[in-house]
Specification:
The chain is built from five helices and five strands, in the order H-E-H-E-E-H-H-E-E-H. A hairpin with a 5-residue loop joins strand 2 and strand 3. The N and C termini lie far apart (61 Å). The mean pLDDT is 86.
């Protein structure tokens, strides 16, 4: 391989890193809504108040109840994670520094100006912070089924995991 191609190929790979980083930031704010079903061996009359209390303790408030009372909707404000914002900031600094170093090698006369890209790094945590704080909805459906209750929960993937770990394994 010719040494003339080393720097441009490094710039290409570093640019791909930057593109991947932009998509990573966008994905950090995406809603990941899923639906799961469980069978809980408790009668509906005993389970419903327990689940209502669970969601209220998690910061949700009762938003709507269906006419037959079988489907309940809770809403709560999701807060952005300071740790994720700091992590994204660190990644932004690393990404822009890598691009600036490659540009400095490729263009020795004006490459030092590429370090101005590092000044754009606060955009990453700002974008995350703006998009991660949102109103989240959880829909809970309860159907009596023999001696227990069929529970269907629709909400963010992380909320479903927490529900499973807290309520079902308690």
């Amino acid at each position: 391989m010719s040494s003339d191609l080393i720097y441009p190929s490094t710039l290409l790979l570093t640019s791909l890193l930057a593109i991947g980083f932009v998509f990573f930031i966008r994905a950090s704010t995406k809603e990941r809504i899923e639906t799961k079903e469980w069978f809980i061996a408790q009668p509906l009359a005993k389970l419903a108040p327990r689940l209502k209390q669970y969601f209220q303790q998690r910061g949700y408030r009762l938003h709507a109840v269906s006419a037959d009372g079988a489907e309940v909707t809770f809403q709560g404000q999701v807060a952005a994670s300071p740790w994720m914002a700091a992590f994204l900031f660190a990644l932004a600094v690393a990404t822009t520094t890598a691009i600036a170093l490659v540009l400095m090698v490729l263009f020795p006369n004006g490459g030092i100006l590429a370090f101005g890209l590092v000044g754009l790094t606060p955009i990453a945590p700002w974008f995350y912070w703006r998009g991660a704080q949102r109103l989240e909805t959880v829909k809970l459906s309860l159907q009596p089924h023999g001696i227990g209750t069929q529970v269907t929960l629709e909400g963010h993937r992380d909320e479903l995991i927490t529900f499973e770990d807290t309520v079902l394994r308690a």
